[in-house]
Each structure stands twice: as structure tokens, then as C-alpha cells.
């Protein structure tokens, strides 16, 4: 792999790592950056390039595992985490609740993955997703409770877990909507604090992104060659390092500034991309 391709992989990994945890759509940012400037499809091919945009997120997911290590050990029954203050009767987030949250988007991804991969990875759909997700985020903040019922994930119910999972489906069918944007907005509208909704979002991201990457890899395995492997590795490492930096910053920020500033950024970005896209077209 020459230096130019290496830098393209690093840039895409950086974009993924810095935007994965903010509700601005990491996939949307990668599609915009790649389709309009980096053009990875020209040397990887369409299907391998789309797979890269899914698999590179595993770098960010590894960062989540490290940051939430004790929480995952608790979910798996390996190490017991003390319940957060306010959790009723020693309640903890259960693995079953995570599974309930994963089911809607997981089933949607399995049955409609071909359509999503073929038609929805484009700048046009990202612009729509950015704007639509921004509207949802503004609505969520506008109607959120001043005193949320659920301030930590240990207090959430199965009904809330399912509701957040249903909101996650919006990000599956429309790249650019943002998985964290849809789930945090959904959680807030269901009575959760921004931080509790963000924590649950990141915990759910680990199995769903691992599954999505595995499906995409298996489906497009015939298009792969060993020459693409260094590109994937460079992007993965870049995404991991930048995600490790950004995740702690975002978790400290979200309860303070909430969703509207991110929504405004999304609307401005959608407008700028539209103007640039018109010029390019």
C-alpha cells in the first residue's frame, strides 16, 4: 500500500473515530468524505469500499469495550458492578435488556441489508438523514423532561430498552441519521437522561456493529483481495485511537450541552454539502 492510500485509510479512520460517539452520523461523514474527495471505491471496488465503512467502526467499538470494560464484565456475569446510586433494589442493567434493544435494528439489518448496501450508501441519502435526524434531536430536547425518570442505565426498563431499539431502526434504513442520534433522542423522549441514553447506545453498539461487520464481510468476501487488508488495518487502528480520545470527552459533554448544538451542526453541514454536491454534479 502506497503512502497516499495509507493516508486515505487513516483519514477515514480518524473521521469515524471522532464522529462515532457524537450524534452526527459517523457513517454519513465517511460517505461524504469518501464519495466527494477520497474515492476509495476506485481502488477497492464498490462492495469492498462499503464494507470498509462498516468494518472500520470496529476500531471505535474496541474503544467502547475498553471504556465500558467493567460494565461488560457485569453483563456477562464475570464481575459484579455495584449498582449506581438511585437504582431501585440493587437493580443493574441486564444482558436481556441489551438484547431487547438490539432486536429491532438487528432484524431489520438482516432482512434489508442488500437494499441498504446497494441503494442507501450515497451523499443524497446522507443529506436527507442529517436533516431528518437533526429535526428529531431538536424535538427530543424540546420535549425532554427537566427531571428525567431514568438517570443511569441501571434504572431503565425493558419497555424503554425496546423503545430505544425501535428508534435505532431509523439509522439502519437511512445512513446519515446517526445511530447515537436516533437512540439518544429516543431515550430522552422515553424519560431517560442524555447520559443514560448515551451509555445504553454505546453498550448496544458493540454487538450490533460486530454483527453488521461480520455479515458485510461474509457477503462481500468474494470481492476481497489481500491487497485491501493493509487499508482495513490502517483504518481500524486510526479509528480506535481517535475514538479512545473522543468517547470520554463526549460522555462528559452530552448532559451539559444536550442535543440541539449537534442538530444545528447537522443542518449546517447538510446545507454546505448540498451546495458542494450541486457544484460537483
Query: Shape from CA axes?
Result: globular
In total, the number of strands is: 0
Helical percentage: over 70%
Mean pLDDT: 90
Q: What is the terminal separation in angstroms? A: 30 Å
General description of the model:
There is one protein chain. The protein is mainly alpha-helical and 281 residues long. The protein has 13 helices and no strands. Helix content is 75%, strand content 0%. It is globular and about 50 Å long. The mean pLDDT is 90.
Quick overview of this protein structure:
With 281 residues, this protein is mainly alpha-helical. It has helices at residues 3-19, 26-38, 41-44, 46-55, 57-67, 69-75, 95-119, 123-142, 158-173, 179-189, 194-219, 229-257, 260-280.
Secondary structure elements and their pairing?
Elements: H1 3-19, H2 26-38, H3 41-44, H4 46-55, H5 57-67, H6 69-75, H7 95-119, H8 123-142, H9 158-173, H10 179-189, H11 194-219, H12 229-257, H13 260-280
Amino acid at each position: 500500500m502506497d503512502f497516499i492510500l495509507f493516508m486515505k485509510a487513516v483519514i477515514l479512520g480518524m473521521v469515524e473515530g471522532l464522529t462515532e460517539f457524537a450524534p452526527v452520523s459517523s457513517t454519513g461523514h465517511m460517505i461524504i468524505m469518501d464519495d466527494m474527495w477520497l474515492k476509495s471505491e476506485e481502488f477497492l471496488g464498490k462492495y469492498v469500499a462499503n464494507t470498509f465503512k462498516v468494518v472500520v467502526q470496529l476500531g471505535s467499538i474496541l474503544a467502547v469495550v475498553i471504556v465500558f470494560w467493567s460494565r461488560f464484565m457485569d453483563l456477562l456475569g464475570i464481575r459484579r458492578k455495584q449498582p449506581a446510586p438511585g437504582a431501585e433494589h440493587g437493580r443493574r442493567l441486564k444482558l436481556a435488556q441489551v438484547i431487547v434493544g438490539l432486536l429491532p435494528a438487528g432484524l431489520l439489518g438482516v432482512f434489508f441489508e442488500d437494499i441498504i448496501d446497494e441503494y442507501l450508501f450515497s451523499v443524497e441519502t446522507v443529506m436527507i438523514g442529517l436533516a431528518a435526524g437533526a429535526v428529531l434531536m431538536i424535538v427530543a430536547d424540546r420535549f425532554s423532561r427537566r427531571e428525567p425518570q431514568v438517570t443511569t442505565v441501571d434504572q431503565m426498563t425493558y419497555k424503554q430498552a425496546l423503545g430505544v431499539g425501535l428508534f435505532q431502526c431509523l439509522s439502519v434504513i437511512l445512513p446519515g441519521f446517526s445511530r447515537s442520534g436516533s437512540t439518544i433522542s429516543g431515550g430522552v423522549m422515553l424519560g431517560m437522561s442524555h447520559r443514560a441514553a448515551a451509555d445504553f447506545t454505546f453498550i448496544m453498539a458493540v454487538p450490533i456493529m460486530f454483527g453488521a461487520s461480520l455479515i458485510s464481510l461474509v457477503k462481500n468476501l468474494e470481492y476481497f483481495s489481500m491487497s485491501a487488508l493493509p487499508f482495513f488495518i490502517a483504518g481500524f487502528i486510526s479509528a480506535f485511537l481517535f475514538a479512545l480520545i473522543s468517547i470520554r470527552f463526549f460522555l462528559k459533554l452530552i448532559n451539559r450541552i444536550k442535543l440541539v448544538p449537534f442538530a444545528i451542526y447537522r443542518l449546517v453541514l447538510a446545507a454546505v454539502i448540498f451546495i458542494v454536491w450541486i457544484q460537483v454534479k
